[in-house]
Amino acid sequence: RIYTEEYVRGGMIEKVNITVENIAGEELRDITLTLSPMVGWVTLLGPTTWNIPKLESGEKTVLKLEMYVPSETATGSTIGEPFNLKVDASFRDRSGQIRSEVHVLGMYVKGIIELRLQEISIEKLGEDILLIGRLLNEGTEKASYTQVQLIGGDLQSNIVSYLGDVEPNAPILFNIPVEKLLKTEGKAKVKLKVTYQNSLRQRGETILEAEVDIPSFSEESAQAEAPSLLQGMRLPLVILLVIIAAAVVIYFARRSRRVEAT
Which has the closest alpha carbon to 207: 182, 190, 229, 225? Predict the structure, then answer.
């Protein structure tokens, strides 16, 4: 019997173990095994033929090789795609006869999902405080049904930010309204939980932690109010200056008439 792992990760050189087990009920000698991929986009690195002097009944041995499967080919993505390895085996049984067998090992290409924070900040929009960040997938497979939520740190919120698909090497923005801020200055600790599904509908989860600067909201408010105050005073001030100028003109006009009358 010959068997191996069920998958290799796309886009990486993977170490693969091939297990050979003698289930013939007798000792087998002069065992030769040759592996070859049955699709053109799978590459086996290093030796692909092994010679095993003998295997007792029930005994196992493990063959090690390296394999490279690209995450994409000219025809598209290989993520989730099945492929086979052919194993040509020959051995000598107890009677001395040489026997040959062909085994097929089935595997599939598994994608990699690696999510990290590219940037994160606290912003104020009107009366709302928002945690705004950018999520980057550094893997080879998109993360589907992606959601981000706060689960700890100095910020609290029960609101979940739904992102949908997060493609590899395509940063995506998220924002979470902050319901409670436990610190008012310095740096706030942020702990996020990101949940998603891969191409096989298997659920995954990533915990991300970061520190973010807390902006000075009171100073911003004072700076925002100052221009508004000046703008509010501008119109009455102009009207007052116009009235004063008119009064001065009228005063000098009347005084000029009195002088002429005299």
Answer: 190
